[in-house]
Structure formats: C-alpha cells, structure tokens
Amino acid sequence: WASWHKTYTHSIFLYALDYPEDWRLKEVGRATSVFSPFESKNDKFAENVQIVAEDLSRSPVEVTLIDYHRAGLKNAEKFLTDFKPLEEAQTRWLDRDTIVMLYSMTLHGEKFRCKDYKFAVGKTFYVLTYYATELDFEKYLSAAESIMRSIRVSP
C-alpha cells in the first residue's frame, strides 16, 4: 500500500509512521491511534493500531524493557476483563530488542485479540498495539503489521 498511504509524524516523541489513506488518525494524550474504515453501518468497532510513547528519563530507578513489559502485564491483568496472554517472545524487530505479545480480552461483552510490540529508544518506551475483534483479527492483521513496521523513531 506504499502508493496510497499517509504519513504521520509525532512532534514530541519524534516518530513517524505510514498508514492507509482510508484509515483515520486520532491523537489522545500520549497515544496515537489509526483506525480502519467501518465495513458497514452495523460495524461497531474499527480495528486499530495504537502507538503509545512514554519518556522514563526522569524515573528514579533504571527501567529495562523486561521491567516495562512486566509492569504492563500487571496493569493488563488488573484492568482488562478476561485478559489472557496467548504468545509472548523476546526478539529483534526493526533492529531493536523487542517484546512481542499476542493476547485476548473481553470488552463490553465482545472478545478481542490484540498484538503488541514493546521496545525502547534510549529512555523512551514505545508500545504499538493492534486491537481487533476476535472475528476480524486475521482480516486486518496484514495492514496492522504494515503500519507498525513503518514506524521510524529519531534517537
């Protein structure tokens, strides 16, 4: 989809990403989300990719990627209904140490499947998450992966 994409640049965290022209972008606080188009008037959920950046340079303690991931797991277990990790791995992704996790959860009675990538650049941690209904997860996975792989972060 390289010929029909838009590029977004975050002015504070200095990252850029590409997304399909028919997807819409919304910024809320530290989070930026890119939403798929609704399939019909009955479609209640737009599958999306969310990017959250968190600057921990002022943290009084050293935070590693594993520490950050474990804190995220604790929050997920605490705040997400039926949170269940399905796969988890440490890998190299986009030339960075990264933790990848696939998980399921329930929101407003509907089952969701999510995939996220966590990595750090210096003391800033990035979490890229693909959110989809369980039924549509595979349908939008390729586009979501393309969006997430397009991220460019300035050091």
Question: Can you describe this structure?
Answer:
With 155 residues, this protein is α+β, with helices and mostly antiparallel strands. It has two helices and ten strands. A hairpin with a 2-residue loop joins strand 7 and strand 8 (110-121). The longest helix is centred in the middle third of the chain and has 15 residues, at 65-79. It starts with a strand and ends with a strand.
How do the helices and strands line up, and which of them pair or pack?
Blueprint: E1 5-9, E2 15-20, E3 24-28, E4 31-35, E5 48-55, H1 65-79, E6 81-93, E7 96-107, E8 110-121, E9 124-133, H2 137-149, E10 152-153
Antiparallel strand pairs: 1-2, 2-10, 3-4, 4-5, 5-9, 6-7, 7-8, 8-9
How far apart are the first and last residues' alpha carbons, in Å? 27 Å
Number of helices: 2
* Mean pLDDT figure: 93
Order of helices and strands: EEEEEHEEEEHE
Radius of gyration equals 15 Å
Biggest sheet record: 7 strands, antiparallel
Please indicate the percent range of residues in DSSP E strands (runs of 2 or more): over 45%
What is the multimeric organization of the chains shown?
single chain
Quick one: overall form?
A: globular
Low-confidence stretches: none
Number of strands: 10
User: Can you list the strand order of the major beta sheet?
Assistant: 3-4-5-9-8-7-6
Give the helix level as a range of percent: 10-25%
> Helix/strand/pairing class, anyone?
alpha+beta
